[in-house]
């Protein structure tokens, strides 16, 4: 028979995580707790001579269903917290009364009957279950296949976001842009200044004024933009002059200048 | 220990699931309550299968799992559609059916 | 030509439809098309008449089968036409007078924007009337009967923008419905007794049916006739029917439609021949109406209403004659034809006068019109002499024959009916002379804006033709008993009976009374001044000018209890039937209001309800309640 230790372990493994459904605040925590419940149930199935069902329980529930729940939780915002305060008047009492009453009713009914378990039992090995599935229940099996496909299509339809307006072509986008008064050609590249081509420096127009648009907006927002003026100042400052020559030559030159100063 | 114990366990789990459905406002959590109720029923089926010594009950439980899987897929799709429409998955908000 | 008689009905009917459906584009020529349709009908009718003249008296009855109309079990009705001397006489009267009045209307309605519609209605009337007289079964006759009723209704209410005119049209329609119910009952009785509604078959078997049944049929037919012919007690609509344009009054409410009742009685002569009771009632109704109409006519100042009262009275004569049996049938139809001519002529004359006097109908504001309207005066005068029964004008030949026939018989009847007819002649002389003198003689009492002038030739032409007929037709038809011989195949040969008074005595008495009536009228309304405003009426005048308070009587005795009855029923309907229905509704509503509270829109409440319900079900099963 079934060992009481196993039963109590299973009971503890299922009821305690299941209670999180009522008391936990974060949906993710609950989902993880339910995974534990599912595993516990799988153990129970195996203990009840249903090894195939136990494996299916693990694969379908912990592997597929609960992961799907988690995905959806991620999609709608994983850190959604629920206020535990009840908004419907008396709903909690109704729930307590309803669920508790139902449990009490069922337990009383079950306690009322005496059922001797069968002495021997064909274990629910995959081949035994398959034998039934593909003989006595084959029609239901086929119908369920159709149901699954329908459900999959249904989910696709429900989550599909229909395009409300026709796709805008590049031609249309460009035309709208020009009509709105934008510059018809590309923006100037940044840093096109005689001796410098850094991305964070605006380009200069022919009059020598910086063209702010040429720098990426992101840099501007982050205040990482440099100005041409500072570079000009650097140019005028020989100490900071950057040489056009290759690195080693430049170093040599500097050295020689220093030498001259001295 | 008789398998009937698992039926009691199933009853308790069913009650917890039902209470969750009635009390939780988050649609996903309520939905998980529904799943727990289904699994409680499955447990009862398997337990009775053991008591009767037939594996037909297991096949029934298997069918329930398949239907539950289909139901989860559609249910979650509905939740997503509702979330897209109103940026919320609270069960209390869609009260358009109020008479 | 006899087989083409269906054209008589088809042509005016098609014309009516074209005129209505063609819309405004037919405004320019529509009235002439109406005239042409009516004239075509006359030509066809005249052709049929000529062909019939060429036949033997015995073979002058010609049946034209059109199509099987109703074929259902025991009742099979063929739509067919019966062309015999009686119907062809009517055809000639209707189409001839009708065509003249069509022509007259072209001028009379010239300024009316809806003249085209008017002609459509007139054509519809002509078609219906011809269907009525040509039908070979009571059912087809009923179709025409209703058709003329409809046309009459439409034409009385032609100027329906005036509420009282529309009311008059409704009144005519509703009173006629009572008569129609009589006809329907008669048809039901006929079918129950004979299993058919065709004239031929009914008259062939009429001897084999119980007299009481025949009496019932005859009385039901009389009800129909009183409704259509404005006889007592259903006469009240005719005076108000004068709301219609004058040509309508001339054609429908004087010459043709109102005589349909007489036609019905004469046509059913074979039935009445076997039921003495019904015949006496017919004669009594005729006698009452002829006296009553004459008295009403004496008190009316409205020229058209006076003529309408006269029409009632004259049709009373015809009814009286029809009630006398075979001896009177021919004279009834004879008087009907001559009356159709002179009364239509006088109505057209009245229309001409109204035309000249700004549509005023008050005779007290007429006077001395003979100089202004010579043609109207002369034509009206001929009609006046004709209705008076002055020899040798038409009325003399027809009316005196009726008076003589009324004196024929045994017991009290010849005395009562004969004296009624005799007195009626005197009264007729008085009120027609009063009308004539007030209108054409005496001093001018015109309103200031009245400028009398003769009417255009389109109006005077028909009046002249009709006045010639008024003058000569009677003599022409009476000489050598032409008309009575002509009608003999239908009315049957009447044995000559001597009246209770000698014929010369009756004739002398009649002429004497007429002379007295004319002289009194001349003294009072010709020579003496007529006050422009009606003087305070004596009791008799008051009663007569209010149509013997028939309207008030109807209102008090029929309408008011009817109203109360319907009100009670409406109240009962509202309180009991509607109460139950509405109570159910309100109850369900309350129930819904209560149940609505459970429909909070809260999903969790719903699921709680489901859970509790499931738990309750389980508990029920466990406890053995369910």
Reading the helices and strands of chain A in chain order gives HHHHHHHEEHHH
- What's the CATH C level of the domain at 1-79 in chain A? Mainly Alpha
**Order of helix and strand elements from N to C terminus of chain B:** HHH
Report the C-alpha radius of gyration of chain A, rounded: 36 Å
Biggest sheet, spatial arrangement of strands of chain A: 1-2
Number of helices in the DSSP assignment of chain B: 3
Distance between the termini of chain B: 52 Å
Tell me the structural class of chain B.
mainly alpha
Can you put this structure into words, describing what you see?
- The complex is a heterotrimer of chains A (262), B (99) and C (626).
- Chain A is an all-alpha fold and 262 residues long.
- Chain A is built from ten helices and two strands; from the N terminus they run αααααααββααα.
- Among the domains of chain A are: 1-79, Four Helix Bundle (Hemerythrin (Met), subunit A) (Up-down Bundle); 187-261, no CATH class.
- Chain A has helices at residues 4-23, 27-47, 51-76, 91-112, 126-133, 138-159, 170-179, 217-221, 228-236, 247-261, and strands at residues 203-204, 210-211.
- A two-stranded antiparallel sheet of chain A has the order 1-2.
- The N and C termini of chain A lie far apart (102 Å).
- Chain B has 99 residues and is mainly α.
- Chain B has helices at 4-23, 27-52, 56-86.
- The termini of chain B are far apart.
- The model of chain B has no long low-confidence stretch (mean pLDDT 89).
- Chain C is mainly alpha-helical and 626 residues long.
- Chain C has a domain at 554-623.
- Helix content of chain C is 72%, strand content 3%.
- Chain C has 24 helices and two strands.
- Chain C has a two-stranded antiparallel sheet with strand order 1-2.
- In chain C, strand 1 (62-72) and strand 2 (75-83) form a beta hairpin.
- Chain C is globular, with a radius of gyration of 30 Å.
- Chains in contact: A-B, A-C, B-C.
- Chains B and C meet through helix 1 of B and helix 24 of C.
Task: Describe the structure in brief.
The complex is a heterotrimer of chains A (262), B (99) and C (626). Chain B is 78% helix and 0% strand. Chain B is mainly alpha-helical and 99 residues long.
């Amino acid at each position: 028979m079934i060992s009481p230790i196993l039963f109590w372990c299973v009971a503890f493994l299922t009821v305690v995580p299941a209670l999180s459904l009522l008391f936990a605040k974060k949906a993710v925590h609950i989902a993880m707790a339910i995974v534990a419940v599912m595993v516990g149930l799988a153990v129970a199935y195996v203990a009840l001579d249903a090894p195939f069902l136990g494996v299916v329980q693990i694969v379908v529930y912990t592997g597929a269903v609960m992961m799907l729940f988690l995905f959806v939780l991620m999609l709608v915002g994983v850190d959604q917290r629920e206020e535990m305060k009840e908004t419907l008047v008396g709903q909690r009492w109704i729930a307590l009364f309803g669920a508790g009453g139902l449990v009490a009713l069922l337990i009383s009914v079950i306690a009322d009957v005496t059922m001797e378990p069968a002495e021997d039992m064909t274990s629910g090995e995959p081949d035994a279950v398959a034998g039934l599935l593909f003989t006595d229940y084959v029609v239901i099996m086929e119908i369920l296949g159709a149901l699954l496909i329908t459900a999959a299509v249904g989910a696709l339809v429900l989550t599909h976001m229909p395009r409300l307006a026709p796709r805008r072509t590049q031609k249309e986008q460009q035309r709208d842009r020009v009509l709105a008064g934008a510059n018809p050609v590309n923006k100037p590249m940044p840093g096109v200044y005689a001796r410098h081509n850094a991305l964070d420096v605006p380009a200069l127009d022919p009059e020598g004024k910086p063209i702010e648009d040429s720098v990426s907006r992101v840099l501007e927002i982050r205040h990482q933009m440099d100005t041409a003026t500072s570079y000009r100042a650097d140019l005028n400052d020989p100490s900071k002059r950057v040489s056009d020559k290759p690195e080693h030559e430049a170093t040599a030159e500097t050295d020689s200048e220093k030498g001259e100063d001295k | 220990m008789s398998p009937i114990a698992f039926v009691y366990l199933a009853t308790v789990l069913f009650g917890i699931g039902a209470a969750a459905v009635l009390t939780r406002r988050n649609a996903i959590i309520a939905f998980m309550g529904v799943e727990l109720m289904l699994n409680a029923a499955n447990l009862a089926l398997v337990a009775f299968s053991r008591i009767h010594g037939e594996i037909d009950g297991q096949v029934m439980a298997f069918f329930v799992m398949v239907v539950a899987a289909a139901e989860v897929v559609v249910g979650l799709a509905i939740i997503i559609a509702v979330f897209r429409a109103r940026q919320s998955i609270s069960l209390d908000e869609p009260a358009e059916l109020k008479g | 030509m006899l087989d083409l008689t269906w054209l008589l009905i088809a042509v005016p009917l098609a014309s009516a439809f074209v005129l209505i459906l063609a819309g405004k584009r037919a405004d320019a020529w529509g009235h002439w098309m109406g005239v042409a349709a009516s004239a075509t009908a006359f030509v066809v009718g005249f052709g049929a008449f000529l062909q019939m003249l060429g036949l033997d008296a015995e073979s002058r009855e010609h049946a034209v089968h059109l199509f099987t109309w109703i074929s259902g079990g025991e009742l099979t009705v063929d739509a067919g036409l019966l062309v015999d001397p009686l119907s062809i006489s009517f055809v000639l009267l209707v189409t001839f007078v009708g065509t003249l009045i069509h022509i007259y209307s072209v001028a009379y309605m010239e300024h009316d924007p809806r003249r085209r519609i008017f002609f459509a209605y007139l054509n519809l009337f002509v078609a219906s009337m011809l269907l009525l007289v040509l039908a070979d079964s009571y059912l087809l006759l009923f179709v025409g009967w209703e058709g003329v009723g409809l046309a009459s209704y439409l034409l009385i209410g032609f100027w329906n923008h005036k509420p009282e005119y529309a009311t008059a049209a409704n009144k005519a329609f509703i009173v006629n419905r009572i008569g129609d119910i009589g006809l329907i009952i008669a048809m039901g009785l006929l079918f129950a007794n004979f299993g058919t509604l065709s004239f031929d078959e009914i008259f062939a078997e009429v001897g084999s049916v119980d007299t009481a049944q025949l009496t019932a049929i005859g009385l039901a037919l009389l009800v129909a006739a009183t409704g259509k012919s404005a006889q007592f007690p259903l006469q009240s609509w005719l005076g108000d029917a004068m709301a219609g344009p004058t040509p309508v009054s001339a054609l429908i409410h004087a010459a043709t439609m109102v005589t349909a009742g007489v036609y019905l009685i004469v046509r059913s002569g074979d039935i009445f021949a076997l039921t003495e009771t019904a015949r006496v009632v017919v004669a009594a109704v005729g006698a009452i109406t002829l006296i009553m109409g004459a008295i009403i006519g004496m008190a009316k100042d409205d020229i058209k209403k006076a003529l309408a009262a006269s029409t009632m009275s004259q049709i009373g004569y015809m009814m009286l004659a029809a009630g006398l049996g075979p001896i009177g049938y021919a004279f009834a139809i004879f008087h009907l034809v001559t009356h159709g001519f002179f009364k239509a002529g006088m109505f057209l004359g009245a229309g001409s006068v109204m035309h000249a006097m700004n549509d005023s109908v008050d005779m007290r504001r007429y006077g001395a019109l003979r100089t202004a309207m010579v043609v109207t005066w002369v034509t009206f005068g001929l009609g006046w002499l004709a209705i008076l029964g002055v020899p040798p004008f038409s009325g003399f030949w027809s009316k005196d024959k009726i008076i003589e026939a009324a004196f024929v018989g045994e017991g009290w009847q010849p005395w009562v009916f004969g004296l009624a007819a005799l007195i009626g002649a005197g009264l007729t002389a008085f009120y027609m002379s009063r009308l004539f003198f007030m209108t054409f003689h005496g001093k001018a009492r015109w309103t200031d804006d009245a400028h009398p002038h003769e009417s255009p030739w389109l109006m005077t032409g028909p009046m002249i033709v009709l006045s010639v007929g008024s003058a000569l037709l009677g003599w022409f038809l009476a000489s050598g008993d032409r008309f009575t011989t002509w009608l003999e195949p239908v009315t049957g040969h009447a044995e000559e009976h001597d009246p209770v008074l000698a014929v010369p005595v009756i004739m002398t008495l009649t002429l004497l009374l007429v002379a007295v009536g004319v002289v009194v009228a001349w003294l009072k309304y010709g020579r003496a001044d007529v006050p422009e405003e009606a003087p305070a009426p004596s009791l008799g005048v008051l009663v007569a000018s209010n149509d013997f308070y028939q309207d008030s009587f109807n209102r008090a005795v029929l309408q008011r209890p009817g109203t109360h009855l319907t009100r009670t029923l409406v109240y009962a309907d509202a309180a009991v039937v509607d109460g139950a229905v509405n109570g159910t509704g309100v109850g369900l509503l309350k129930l819904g209001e209560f149940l609505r509270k459970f429909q909070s829109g809260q999903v969790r409440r719903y699921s709680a309800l489901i859970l509790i319900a499931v738990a309750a079900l389980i508990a029920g099963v466990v406890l053995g309640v369910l």
